[in-house]
Fold:
Amino acid sequence: MNYETVELKTKRLIIKKGQKEDFLRVYEYDFNKLKNVDGECKLVKNDPNKILSLFNGGIKKYYSKLKKAHMFDWIVYLDNEPIGNILTTDEDSKNMMIEIIYNLHPSYWGNGYMPEAVVSVIDYLFKLGYESIVCAYLDGNLKAKRTLTKLGFKPYKINEDAFKSEAGNMIDEYKTIMTKEDWLSRTQKISKLKDSL
Structure:
């Protein structure tokens, strides 16, 4: 399998490898504070040095490490502006399963950019040979739950008390799954519907 983070395109977006500055922009805010887990969504700036430390040795070395770890990391661009990130993790090569994580800068919420980007990545990963894609959200993160439901992800498993929130509450993590069979069935139906219009 080719673990190269290739360029993907949608109607409005380009999804490709990023540069250090792009990651700084996308991760301007701490996404853990934006998840609305305790009923609060806070814009808290990230420490740029923490982000830059991921790229010790340069951007080429970063992507080389990802490739060796069987991971992909895309930056999502709108009109050449970095607006989000889609990362894969936890590949299960035996079952041909991989997990995706995504983040969108809050300035771009509510425009359908992330579902559009995720669809392109899902399509690519299935064409690459994966049989299932997993994506998780935390209890209380209604935006993520809505996005995954719209995309057709189904409940997979619950990790109870997976995280402790700032308020001291234990938070469950909900994992959802999309199988290649479900994806092809769904996309073929959409394609047939478009053709009939």
The mean pLDDT is 86. The chain has one domain: 8-196.
